[in-house]
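User: I've been trying to design a sequence by hand for this structure and keep getting stuck. Would you show me what you'd pick, starting by listing the structure so we're on the same page?

Assistant: Good idea, let's start from the same input. This is the structure you sent:
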């Protein structure tokens, strides 16, 4: 359970059919303000499209912070995740 007051984000991502190493939460200036884990059960992703098993992620960011995006990291490469409509 994250500390009280934090913003919890969730989703899922695959990179080349495999899961990322971790996810980072960035602000509008691409400064890292939070992070999280990937490889969670599909039910952990609160998305319209069901997550493939083991590809879900959850991350935290400080409450009230303007979130600019979520970035998946795989073998040192960064991939900006697109929000689901």
């Amino acid at each position: 359970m994250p500390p009280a007051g934090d913003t919890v984000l969730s989703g899922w991502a695959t990179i080349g059919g495999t899961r990322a190493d971790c996810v980072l939460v960035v602000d509008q200036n691409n400064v890292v303000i939070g992070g999280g884990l990937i490889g969670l059960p599909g039910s952990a992703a609160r998305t319209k499209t069901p997550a493939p098993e083991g590809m879900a992620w959850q991350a935290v960011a400080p409450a009230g912070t303007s979130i600019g995006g979520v970035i998946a990291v795989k073998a040192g490469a960064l991939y900006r995740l697109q929000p689901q409509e």
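That's my pick for every position. To get oriented when you compare it with your attempt: The chain has a mean pLDDT of 88. The chain has one domain: 7-81.
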